[in-house]
Amino acid sequence: MSAASNPKKAWIIQGGWDGHEPVLVSERFAEMLRREGFVVEIFDTLGVLADRRTELNELDLLVPVWTMGEITHEQSVAAAEAVGKYGVGLAGCHGGMCDSFRSDTEWQFMTGGQWVSHPGGDGTNYRVHIRRGSSPLVEGIPDFDVCSEQYYVHVDPANEVLATTRYPVVNYYHAANGEVDVPVAWTKRWGHGRVYYNSLGHHNDVFDIPEAAEMMRRGMLWAAEGKQLFRRTKPDPEQFSNPAKMY
Q: What is the DSSP letter of 142?
């Protein structure tokens, strides 16, 4: 079957805090993916995660754009299993993925990090440092400056870090620790699925910066490629599951 008759499929789930402009960010990401040949559906409800699990498990990519919300146990398990058992790619940015559901530790485990602070708030000038040689995903992308929220995140040590930012830029209690580099973008594996995160994106216009937009484009495509590998190799969906795991 040709690629044209079997197009790649992505869902974007938008909602939560309006300050992160979920509608505008979702539309931007949808356009990026459509230019790459994806069929994209945008939903403003988390209900599809549990209500349409068969379709969810067949996706190439799931893109959450949902900040400070509440997810049910059933919805969380559906997302975790779609990625981990069935190789669905997961990619997102800023609070739309790593500040989505503060009470759900399984979501944080899967995504690889959680926002904890942004000293200085919006309008902070800082630099994104690309980790040279870390991954083809950032090859050829130079360091660049951003005026936005500088995300301080707690992260999974298993992450492959692609870019960092240095603290402190503004004075706050954390400055007593001296200089420290905090991840901006990373990849990780969740079972059979690939996960990509980028902490940029407080507002939609951050992705007017060409480097930021290119990082997201590459990250979403890389995450989706994991599903293509899953289809080719047909691994056991239960390989990484454990019935003794307590949710």
A: P
AA identity, residue 154: H
Q: How far is CA 49 from CA 44, 79, 93, 154, in A?
A: 11, 6, 19, 26
pLDDT digits (tens, 9 = 90+) for 162-186: 999 999 999 999 999 999 999 999 9
Sign of CA dihedral 13, 18, 19, 24: positive
Q: Which of 191, 196, 187 is nearest to 159 (CA)?
A: 187
Superfamily of segment(s) 8-233: Class I glutamine amidotransferase (GATase) domain (3.40.50.880)
Using only the alpha carbons of the chain, give its radius of gyration.
Answer: 17
The Cα 192–Cα 81 span in angstroms is 10
pLDDT in tens, 34-53: 999 999 999 999 999 999 99
Tell me the mean pLDDT in the region 225-234.
Answer: 97
